[in-house]
Amino acid sequence: MTARILDGNALSQIVRADLAEKAAALKATQNIVPCLAVILVGEDPASAVYVRNKVAACEKAGFRSIKESYPPNVEPIVVLGKIAALNADPSVHGILVQLPLPRQFDAAAVLEAISPEKDVDGFHAENVGALMQGNPRFVPCTPCGVMKMLASENVPLKGAEAVIVGRSNIVGKPMAMLLLAESCTVTICHSRTRDLAFHTRRADILVAAVGQPKMITGDMIKPGATVIDVGINRTPEGKLCGDVDFESAKEVAGLITPVPGGVGPMTITMLLANTLEAAERTLG
Ligand code: NDP
């Protein structure tokens, strides 16, 4: 069996075109241009690329973006002051702080400083709580993008066995909440899970969000399963790869996301969606 590919680039193009249309309508009818402010601290090359891609996606969709960059040794109070100013600026609808932050920062305190109404990454405790309660305001972009991908292929969710490998606040936990809300039976695996393959082989929907190159191999996958690879890793040769060994997995899975070109583009697309939603909400 060779799996069908779930193409995140193609789906992103469709969704982003729709978002651009909606942003243009908001501007035409209400004179509101959705605006995302991105804060980058330090010189991590991967973070710089992510921020550049986010800013470029905003521009392409007709959104406004603000990029605030700080050196690695900046005092946290300076960044917190900027967040307060952006919170108070009515022309700014979304604010995100690119993670990870340098050592001198308390990342949780920084995320809590962002107004929950502008927290388009969905990391503020208030928004995390709202998701837990089944009444989400902003859903973290990566799991939100995964749900869009599953919906685009009409993957049956009710009663499906969903196994998530990884329990981070950014991906694994919110992913579990979203799949649970769709009545999947959810299992979350992590580094202390005994017999990982026992769990992954039961999965109708398998989400890998670990950060270990190619650790999920074809023999760990149920035939016909939907396999979502969130991981972004580099091989020793410098090539991008996921947490799933694509070559062996595609022979077993029914549907599979590639890396690159799978979940990654959908993450940025959902960031745009959340920013547009934040802008629309200012209308009441
Ligand atoms: P974290 O490092 O925060 O979490 C990794 C999780 O994987 C942890 O829960 C950890 O378990 C678990 N884990 C580690 N080793 C194993 C193992 N051998 N077996 C089972 N579980 C294991 O990572 P993130 O969630 O932030 O990111 C995961 C991956 O997704 C990374 O490659 C990241 O680059 C990528 N990513 C991609 C995005 C996209 O847009 N495509 C967006 C965000 C992330 P424990 O909790 O026990 O330590």
Topology:
Layout lengths: L3 E2 L2 H23 L4 E7 L3 H16 L3 E7 L5 H13 L5 E4 L9 H7 L11 H8 L8 H12 L8 E5 L6 H10 L3 E5 L6 H5 L4 E4 L17 E4 L3 E2 L5 E2 L4 H4 L5 E2 L6 H19 L3
Parallel strand pairs: 1-11, 2-3, 2-4, 5-6, 5-7, 7-8, 8-11
Antiparallel strand pairs: 9-10
Helix pairs in contact: 1-10, 2-10, 6-7, 6-10
The structure holds NADPH dihydro-nicotinamide-adenine-dinucleotide phosphate.
How is the main sheet built?
6 strands, parallel
Class inferred from helices and paired strands: alpha/beta
The succession of helices and strands, N to C, reads EHEHEHEHHHEHEHEEEEHEH
Overall helicity:
40-55%
Model description:
The structure is a single chain. This protein is α/β, with parallel strands linked by helices and 284 residues long. It has two domains: 33-117, Rossmann fold; 141-264, 3-Layer(aba) Sandwich (Rossmann fold), CATH 3.40.50. The protein contains ten helices and eleven strands. The protein has helices spanning 8-30, 45-60, 76-88, 107-113, 125-132, 141-152, 172-181, 196-200, 246-249, 263-281, and strands at residues 4-5, 35-41, 64-70, 94-97, 161-165, 185-189, 205-208, 226-229, 233-234, 240-241, 255-256. The strands form three sheets. It has a six-stranded parallel beta sheet with strand order 1-11-8-7-5-6. A three-stranded parallel beta sheet has the order 3-2-4, sandwiched between helices. The longest helix is centred in the first third of the chain and has 23 residues, at 8-30. It is globular, with a radius of gyration of 19 Å. The N and C termini lie far apart (50 Å). The model has no long low-confidence stretch (mean pLDDT 97). Bound molecules: NADPH dihydro-nicotinamide-adenine-dinucleotide phosphate (NDP).
